Amino acid sequence: MPTPEARQAALKADPRLDAYFSDEVERRRVTREMFDEAAAGYDEAERWTGLGTGPWYRREVLRRIGLRPGMHILDVAAGTGLVTVAAQGLVGREGRVIALDPSPGMLGELKKKLSVETLEGYAEDIPLPDASVDFISMGYALRHVGDLDRAFAEYFRVLRPGGQVCLMEISRPGSSIGRVLLFGYIRGVVPVLSRIAGSRADVGRLWEYYGDTIDAALEPEPIMSSLRAAGFSDERCPVTFGIFREYLARKPEAGAV
Ligand SMILES: C[S@@+](CC[C@H](N)C(=O)[O-])C[C@H]1O[C@@H](n2cnc3c(N)ncnc32)[C@H](O)[C@@H]1O
Question: All domains of the chain, ordered by start, with CATH?
Answer without folding.
Answer: 4-173+207-250 (3.40.50.150)
